[in-house]
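Catalogue entry: protein

Sequence with per-residue C-alpha coordinates
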Amino acid sequence: LQLVESGGGVVQAGGSLRLSCTASGFTSDDYAIVWFRQAPGMEREAVSSISSETGRARYSDSVKGRFTISRDNAKATSYLQMNTLKPEDTAVYYCNANNRIGFTYWGQGTQVTVSS
Protein backbone atom coordinates (compact mmCIF):
# COMPACT_ATOMS: atom_id res chain seq x y z
CA LEU A 1 0.00 0.00 0.00
CA GLN A 2 1.78 3.09 -1.13
CA LEU A 3 1.75 6.43 -2.88
CA VAL A 4 4.65 7.42 -5.07
CA GLU A 5 5.27 11.01 -6.14
CA SER A 6 7.34 11.98 -9.12
CA GLY A 7 8.00 14.97 -11.32
CA GLY A 8 9.94 17.20 -8.99
CA GLY A 9 13.11 18.97 -10.03
CA VAL A 10 14.86 22.28 -10.44
CA VAL A 11 13.21 25.00 -12.50
CA GLN A 12 13.70 28.72 -12.99
CA ALA A 13 11.18 31.18 -11.66
CA GLY A 14 8.27 31.47 -14.04
CA GLY A 15 8.64 27.89 -15.18
CA SER A 16 6.36 24.89 -14.81
CA LEU A 17 6.43 21.40 -13.39
CA ARG A 18 3.87 18.63 -13.20
CA LEU A 19 3.90 16.36 -10.19
CA SER A 20 2.32 12.92 -10.25
CA CYS A 21 1.11 10.78 -7.37
CA THR A 22 0.39 7.15 -8.16
CA ALA A 23 -1.34 4.77 -5.78
CA SER A 24 -0.72 1.06 -5.57
CA GLY A 25 -2.10 -1.64 -3.35
CA PHE A 26 -5.42 0.08 -2.69
CA THR A 27 -8.31 1.55 -4.65
CA SER A 28 -7.64 5.25 -4.64
CA ASP A 29 -10.95 6.12 -6.34
CA ASP A 30 -12.64 6.38 -2.93
CA TYR A 31 -9.96 8.62 -1.49
CA ALA A 32 -9.60 12.36 -1.52
CA ILE A 33 -6.14 13.45 -2.61
CA VAL A 34 -4.35 16.30 -0.92
CA TRP A 35 -1.04 17.79 -1.99
CA PHE A 36 1.08 19.22 0.83
CA ARG A 37 4.42 20.93 0.82
CA GLN A 38 7.05 21.56 3.42
CA ALA A 39 9.83 24.08 3.10
CA PRO A 40 12.93 23.92 5.35
CA GLY A 41 12.12 25.12 8.84
CA MET A 42 8.43 25.47 8.01
CA GLU A 43 5.36 23.47 8.89
CA ARG A 44 3.78 21.21 6.31
CA GLU A 45 0.95 23.03 4.54
CA ALA A 46 -1.84 21.82 2.30
CA VAL A 47 -1.78 23.50 -1.10
CA SER A 48 -4.47 21.68 -3.04
CA SER A 49 -7.04 18.91 -2.73
CA ILE A 50 -9.45 17.04 -4.94
CA SER A 51 -12.44 15.11 -3.68
CA SER A 52 -13.21 11.53 -4.53
CA GLU A 53 -16.91 11.83 -5.38
CA THR A 54 -17.21 15.05 -7.34
CA GLY A 55 -13.63 15.87 -8.20
CA ARG A 56 -14.06 19.25 -6.53
CA ALA A 57 -10.72 21.03 -6.36
CA ARG A 58 -9.52 23.43 -3.70
CA TYR A 59 -6.42 25.56 -3.48
CA SER A 60 -4.57 27.57 -0.91
CA ASP A 61 -4.41 31.28 -1.56
CA SER A 62 -0.69 31.04 -2.21
CA VAL A 63 -1.14 28.82 -5.28
CA LYS A 64 -4.61 29.70 -6.53
CA GLY A 65 -4.54 30.60 -10.20
CA ARG A 66 -1.13 28.99 -10.72
CA PHE A 67 -1.58 25.34 -9.72
CA THR A 68 -4.13 22.88 -11.05
CA ILE A 69 -4.96 19.57 -9.44
CA SER A 70 -6.51 16.67 -11.32
CA ARG A 71 -6.94 12.94 -11.05
CA ASP A 72 -7.19 10.01 -13.41
CA ASN A 73 -8.84 7.18 -11.51
CA ALA A 74 -8.20 4.72 -14.32
CA LYS A 75 -4.49 5.26 -13.74
CA ALA A 76 -4.79 5.64 -9.95
CA THR A 77 -2.88 8.87 -10.38
CA SER A 78 -3.29 12.45 -9.28
CA TYR A 79 -1.48 15.36 -10.87
CA LEU A 80 -0.45 18.78 -9.69
CA GLN A 81 0.31 21.10 -12.57
CA MET A 82 2.38 23.99 -11.28
CA ASN A 83 2.78 27.07 -13.46
CA THR A 84 4.41 30.42 -12.95
CA LEU A 85 6.55 28.96 -10.20
CA LYS A 86 8.13 31.25 -7.65
CA PRO A 87 11.17 30.75 -5.41
CA GLU A 88 8.81 30.57 -2.45
CA ASP A 89 7.28 27.43 -3.96
CA THR A 90 10.52 25.62 -3.18
CA ALA A 91 9.68 22.72 -0.89
CA VAL A 92 9.27 18.98 -0.64
CA TYR A 93 5.85 18.13 -2.04
CA TYR A 94 3.89 15.22 -0.61
CA CYS A 95 0.64 13.64 -1.65
CA ASN A 96 -1.83 12.25 0.80
CA ALA A 97 -4.81 10.00 0.19
CA ASN A 98 -7.54 9.84 2.81
CA ASN A 99 -11.06 8.49 3.04
CA ARG A 100 -14.14 9.02 5.19
CA ILE A 101 -13.37 6.20 7.59
CA GLY A 102 -9.98 7.46 8.53
CA PHE A 103 -7.56 5.58 6.34
CA THR A 104 -4.72 7.78 5.17
CA TYR A 105 -1.59 7.20 3.14
CA TRP A 106 1.42 9.40 2.46
CA GLY A 107 3.95 9.43 -0.30
CA GLN A 108 7.67 9.83 0.28
CA GLY A 109 7.82 13.34 -1.17
CA THR A 110 9.45 14.93 -4.19
CA GLN A 111 11.72 17.97 -4.10
CA VAL A 112 10.78 21.08 -6.04
CA THR A 113 13.39 23.82 -6.27
CA VAL A 114 12.65 27.12 -7.97
CA SER A 115 15.65 29.31 -8.69
CA SER A 116 15.39 33.05 -8.99
